[in-house]
Amino acid sequence: KNWPFLNNVGTAINFFQPGQYMPWHHDEYDRYRKFIDDDTSDIVRIIIMLEDSSPGQIIQINESTYGTWKAGDWFAWTDSDYHAFYNFSTVNRYAVQITATL
Description:
Blueprint: E1 7-16, E2 21-25, H1 30-33, E3 43-49, E4 57-61, E5 64-66, E6 74-78, E7 83-87, E8 93-101
Antiparallel strand pairs: 1-8, 2-7, 3-6, 3-8, 4-5, 4-7
């Protein structure tokens, strides 16, 4: 209900153990595109944080870097946006990942 403008919604659990990271990249949406047309220009990805951040947990989207969030905070990007995740903390990081079309 928070995003009524989303269509073709898919969800996943996003789990990063201490020391795990996802380097700087942009999403190709290979699996998701099997269920929609091949155009990725209207795909959006939203990450909803399930817990407050711990020191050393970092998300970077384009030119912005975030190391502090509260449970329920969310971040979003489109197909061409570069981003990265780092869990240099001592605890697991959990989030819900939503992939959809606008």
